[in-house]
Amino acid sequence: MKQLILSTAALALSAGMVLADGHGKTIRLGTEGAYPPYNFLNDAGEVAGFERELGDELCARAELTCEWVTNEWDSIIPNLVSGNYDVIIAGMSITDERDEVIDFTQNYTLPDPSAYVAASEDADLENGVLAAQTNTIQAAFIAESSATLVEFATPEETIAAVKNGEADAVLADKAFLTPIADADPDLMMLDQEELIGGGIGLGLRESDTELKEKLNAAIATMKEDGSLNALLTKWEISGQF
Amino acid sequence: MSCWQTIQDYGLRAIGIGERLLPRDDFTLCQQFTLIGSGMIWNIYFGLFALMLGFFLATALALGKASSRTILRKPAEWFIFLFRGSPLFIQFFFAYFLFLNLKSVSPIFDPFTAAWLGALIVLFFNTAAYSGEIFYGALQSIPKGDTEAADAYGLSGWARFRRVVWPTMLRLAWPAYTNEAIFLFQATALVFFSGFPAWQQRGDALYYASYFADKTFNPFVPYPILAFYFILLTLVIISLFGLVNARLNRHLPQNMRRKIRLRLNLVR
Amino acid sequence: MACYLTTGKHMSIYYSVFTVLILLAVTAPIALLFGFVGASAARSRIAPLRWFAQGYIAIVRGVPEIAFFLFFVIALDQGIEYLRHKALCPDWSEPIRQGNDFVVCQAAKVPLGSAPQWLHETYGFALAVLTFAIVYGAFAANVLFGAMRAVPRAQLETAEAYGMTQRQTFWRVLVPQMWVYALPGLSNLWMVLIKATPLLFLLGVEDIVYWARELGGTKTPRFTDYPHGDWRMWYFLALLVFYLLFTRVSEIVLGRIMARLTKGQATAGGEAQRKAATA
Question: Which CATH number is B140's domain given?
Answer without folding.
Answer: 1.10.3720.10
